Amino acid sequence: MSNEKDTRLVYSTDPKLNQKCPKCRELESECVCAPEVDAKSYKFVAVLRIEKAGRNGKTVTVIDQLPKSELFLKDLTTKLKKKCGSGGTYLMDRKEGVIEIQGDKRELVRAALAKEGIKSKG
Prior knowledge:
Translation Initiation Factor Eif1; about 120 residues; 5 strands; about 20% helix; single chain; five-stranded mixed beta sheet; 2 helices; alpha+beta
């Protein structure tokens, strides 16, 4: 006889047992993803700056020192891109999260961050 931990669910009609993790696509009972951290519970100040270097002269607004939470960064990036009407991306640096918005959109980004309750400087 095998232990409970040695068995693996093959098929079930129970919808609760068939729920899969959106990231790794494994069953939730077998998910190995790290739990998401609630970024709004941390106190942080976002740093805004403009960069041109390495982008063929194109200006990019960079938002630095954000919490390193993929869900938070993805959601905030989507909101900022819609507010600014331009493209952008998010990166997870070694210690922090970074959002890049195309163009010099500092004022729009600052207003959008304030609306979200995030303090900013720069």
